[in-house]
Amino acid sequence: MEQKFFLKRVLSGIVGLVVEVLAPQPCPGCGVFGHGRGGWCESCFENLPWFAGSFCRRCGRPLGLSPGGLTPPLCGDCFNEPPFDNVRSACFYEGVVAELIVRFKYSRALYLLNPLGEILLEGFRRHFGNEAFHFITPVPLHRERLKERGYNQSALLAGFLAKRTGIPVNPKAVIRRRNTIPQVKLSGRERRNNLIGAFAVSERALEQIRGRSILLIDDVVTTGTTLVETAKVLKRAGAARVCGLTVARSGHS
């Protein structure tokens, strides 16, 4: 009975997503209809809080330094060699970008996949346009959280990016084996402890991961803990390269 209810909810979510994404939507910034870039008008899209300036070349954390030199610096944390190769974000988590992510994630505003997907795509072009990846994979949700929400926002974003770039998507490369409490209200140390052992790679996915270059997708990066723990299991499974890309980066570090 529970399985039927879950399947019904998932199918309902898919139908709702198709209807909402295909229906015409106004520009999320100014409310004007008739624009083709995921609904954004050119002015609003150009004036989004794009991630720029000096940042750590590995984790992408803003450093507040004057840009200069041929090799961007490392932040203090990245001298410890985190498991991912690098992480980048399209925008800062502020203004209309933060508002759209919250609505998309918690209010079932699935029609926002297109405008947020376009931001993610632009971030990919800016930061990874010259790199090759074997596949894209989202940060996974635990099945209990998936039942509650009805969808994984990171999986939807990964699917959007895969469709627009032609890079295959592998939604099940990593699984979430422990239903952790939400990270949003936890400190950095609490976030790390909360996610220890939360992710795993299934035996079925091992051959798809060994020696591959993989792009991890999530909606927001704050401390980077989720991407660290996800990248760990991919590297242990033999991935040659693991990078992360998010729609936005929170100023919290």
From TrEMBL:
Stretches assigned to the Phosphoribosyltransferase domain: 155-244
Report domain Double zinc ribbon positions: 19-78
Chain ranges passing through the membrane:
none
Origin, by domain of life? Bacteria
Q: Family per UniProt?
A: Belongs to the ComF/GntX family.
Q: Which PANTHER family does the protein's record reference?
A: DNA UTILIZATION PROTEIN YHGH
Q: What is this protein identified as?
A: ComF family protein
